[in-house]
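Researcher: I'm preparing a figure for a lab meeting and need a structural model of a single chain. I don't have an experimental structure, so a prediction will have to do for now. The sequence is pasted below. Please return the structure as tokens so I can convert it later.
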Amino acid sequence: MATRALTDFLDNNNIYYHCYNHAPAVTAAEVAQSSHIPGRHMAKTVIVDVDGTLTMAVLPADQYMDPEKLRQALNANHVRLATEMEFKDRFPLCEPGGEPPFGNLYGMPVYVDDTLVSKDWIAFNAGNHTEVIKMGMGDFLRLSEASTCSFAMLH
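Model: Understood. Here is the structure written out token by token.
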């Protein structure tokens, strides 16, 4: 159901994209491997609490989020990973961990790491653990209303 809502959103905005099915996978790295997408193009969506506001941090699957770098980039007082209990009700049609990186559809700001923005295309979970959407980075940034900054670090 989440995939249909997301593809309707993309279709209504005349976005060119591909939707791929893959074997069930949970982590972004597993999804990248299962769907044969390089980890540097596979977006990982991390829900964080930034000074009391639930926020999406989007970064390549082959990197980790550095909460301190994100705190500094946003000039925030506190940044921490949100617990699933804090955000599970925000994504009613999505499987836990399958949230697509469109925080604007869920009332959340979105921040995308600069290393991901440098790619010409992006892939991400389509709301579940068996479907991935691939689309152009420019379209993603415009449609997600994301801001960019640097907060990822290599494994």
